[in-house]
Each structure stands twice: as structure tokens, then as C-alpha cells.
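Long-time lurker. I teach an intro course on protein structure, and each term I like to show students one example going from raw sequence to a predicted 3D structure in C-alpha cell notation. This year I'd like something fresh instead of my usual example. Would anyone be willing to generate the C-alpha cells for the chain below so I can use it in lecture? Attribution to the forum is fine with me.
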Amino acid sequence: MSTLKKTMVVVTVNLVSLGLVSTSLASPVLSDSEERIRAASEATHPAYTQDGILQKSLELAEKTSNEAFKASIRWNHAKEIMGKKYHRSVVKSGEKLADIDALVLDWVKHGLRKPYKRYAKALTHTITDVSTQYGMDPLFLLAVIENESSFDTTVVGSHGEIGLMQITPDTAQWVSDRFNIPYKGKQSLKNPMVNVKLGAAYLAYLREKFENQSHLYLAAYNMGSGNVYRALAKRITPKIYPDRVMTRYLKYYTKLKAEIQRVAKEMTEAAERNQKASLMGGRHDYNVSSLF
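-- Reply from a regular --
Happy to contribute to a lecture. Here you go:
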């Protein structure tokens, strides 16, 4: 059986078990009465035809594959950031949850100032998209944003840095030219999506330049590559800025771990209630899948 067919079987079984589709896909030979019921169902609910079920199965398989791909990127970058400390850190607990987009949205919405909360969805999409594009953990980007601006989209630094990721107009223009990212002058740096696209691209550039050593490319983001090289030549490793970002990074994973534990607890309680209802001959009113 091909990988695609195996995926389709698993997805179909999942859909049936969740009550999203009928079992007709798994049992194509129908009696006359069953055929009449099926025909009537298809007439009133086109999505439940075999073509509709196949389409839903393909969509679910694609969504699951995409989530797994994004999760692998996040985990690989997390291991790079944490190094030998990864397996003993709270960050490793993030492996228990593949799709964190909804949590990122909640944290972005909470962080943005009131007038800009309306951009939460668009900004979250930008953060997750550029994270995938550059092979980064979106929680790492959140940590940098929080450290740079506390999610204030209009803040201006003492050296002319603007917006969420505190980018200077000169750096923005350089990044725009190098990565072909649209940039229309310093006022556009107050646009949260433009700012994050430029900031993430610059981080990706520094990450490659400093050979994936997170403490170095974080320091370079703050003080410039030249200053980092000069410090290293004097056998000084910049720590203050990288440590501040890492504190926030670990904070996000602590919150993620708490969310995972909350969901696990609710699932356990729902399963216990369902088991109790079964023993008592009652109906199952608790849908574990609804917790997600």
C-alpha cells in the first residue's frame, strides 16, 4: 500500500471515529435500503458524498502534514538554541504539541496595544509564515519582539530604531534590497507585518553569518556584527542581550507547558466522565476531541 493510501486509511478511520463522516466509505457494498438512505443523504448533504469525504480526507491529511512540517522546524531550531541544555529544559515539553498557532495568536493579541489588536491575526500569520520560511521557532521571534519593543508597534529607540523589532531605516533598506522584501520608507516600519518580515530576514542573515550560534547572532542583532567580532577578539562573549531574550523564550515555553498540562487534564477528566457514563448506561456527553 502506498504512503498516500495509508494516510488516507488513517484519516478516514479518524473521521469515522470522530463521527464526521459515515462508515459508507469503509463499506461500499450497500443493501437497497441503505442505498436509498445514502442517496437521500447525498442529495441534502453534498459534503457527505464519497467525493466529499475524499476531499475532506485530503484536506485533513494536508493540514496534518503541514502542522508536522512546521513542528519539526520549531523543534530543530529549539534544539539549536538550547544546545546541550535542550533535553533537560522546559523547551523539550513543547514536543508534545505540534500546532501552536492558536496559542501564538492569543499571546500576540494579549501583547499588542489596544489600537493595534486588530492586526493580531495578520501579525500571527506573518510570524508563523516567516518562521517556516527561515527555519525558526515562532516562540523565538515572539521573545525577540517582546524584548525589543514589548509589542509596541510605534516605539522609537534612541538610535532611530522603529517598531516591533526595532529596526533602523538603513538596516531596513539593506534587508529589503538583499531579500527583495517591499519597503516604503521608515513610516512603513510602524506596520507590524512589514517590520516583522524585515526583522526576521535580518535575524536569518545573522544566524547564517554566525554559524547558527544563537548567543552570537542575538548579540549581533542588538549591537551589530562588527562589535560582536571585536568583543570576541578580546575574548569577551556578549551575554546581556542574549540572556534577556532567552529569559523570555523560556517564559513562552513555560506557558506552553502549562497549556499542554491543562489540555491533558481536561482530556483525562472527560475520559473518566465518559467511562462513568458508560458504566451507568448513560449517553456520552463529553467529546474529548472538542478540547482541541
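Some talking points for your students: The mean pLDDT is 83. Residues 80 and 212 are 7 Å apart (CA to CA).
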